[in-house]
Amino acid sequence: MKGVGKTAILEQVIYGNISSSSELHPTIEDIYVANIESDRGAREKIRFYDTAGIESSQTTTANGTTSQQLLRHYLVLADGYILIYDTHNISSLDVLMSIKKDIDKNKDKKEVTLIVLGNRTKDIDSPDCQNVISKATDWCNREKIRHFTASAMQRPSLYEPFVYITSKLNPPPSKSTFTPLSMGRKVLKDNS
Ligand SMILES: Nc1nc2c(ncn2[C@@H]2O[C@H](COP(=O)(O)OP(=O)(O)OP(=O)(O)O)[C@@H](O)[C@H]2O)c(=O)[nH]1
Ligand SMILES: [Mg+2]
After folding, report:
1. What is the dihedral of CA 155, 38, 27, 61, to 10 degrees?
2. Which domains are seen in the chain, by residue range?
3. Up-side HSE of residue 134: CA atoms within 13 Å toward CB?
4. CB–CB of 78/44 below 8 Å?
């Protein structure tokens, strides 16, 4: 959804240049390239596509069914998604649920890594906001998605989700990679 802090979070985690007086403009589309250290200490290059937020009015069509929200090129391009909602805005969470359905529809074509990040846009948690977070946590548990909360204004709070997704997108090379090689050699021997 627009204004939940997607750009503020990316600018903060990559450049550390955001404060509460920062004025940000609504995004059309921006690309950020960052070097992020995974949990194994390897520096990985990650490209982030910062999108324009989707409004909840866009998530249902006139006949009540959900239309496709994510532009097709993201579905083709992305290896993973950081779905961001505002912990003080329940409808921003509803928008994520609808986006997740779009991503799932594409699942046969592509396996992706997903995380959900609740942006704490206010210093104090209201009871309402705790309800939003617990609804998000329940949904993420059901969907088996990792859920984080952080604040765009506190850079260190963003490290955990970004290191997590970096590590997920760049898994350690598995031993099974060597199997085709030894199989290949065996085939060669059999032929000789
Ligand atoms: N106080 C506070 N303000 C925030 C926080 N996150 C974002 N903001 C402010 O909210 C406004 C909107 O943030 P953006 O990062 O532009 O939101 P966005 O999700 O990128 O919005 P679109 O690009 O329109 O989809 C900006 O003025 C930010 O400074 C936060 O955690 N705390
Ligand atoms: Mg933006």
Report:
1. -120
2. 6-191 (3.40.50.300)
3. 7
4. no
Give every CB contact of residue 188 below 8 A, 6+ residues apart in sequence.
none
Residue bearing tokens 């520096």 = 43
Rounded to the nearest whole angstrom, what is the distance from the C-alpha of residue 151 to the centroid of ligand 1? Answer: 10
d(CA 183, CA 112) in angstroms, rounded, equals 29
- The secondary structure of residue 28, as a DSSP letter, is S
The Cα 40–Cα 47 span in angstroms is: 19
Separation CA 29–CA 14 (nearest Å): 17
pTM (predicted TM-score): 0.88
The residue whose CA has the least distance to atom 2 of ligand 1 is: 121
In tens, the pLDDT along 108-140 reads 888 899 999 999 999 888 999 999 999 999 999
User: Do 61 and 68 meet the contact criterion of CB atoms below 8 Å apart?
Assistant: no
DSSP 8-state secondary structure symbol assigned to residue 19: -
How far away, in angstroms, is 120 Cα from ligand 1 center?
A: 11
DSSP 118-164: EE--SSS--HHHHHHHHHHHHHHHHHT-EEEEE-TT-HHHHHHHHHH
The predicted pLDDT at position 109 comes to 84
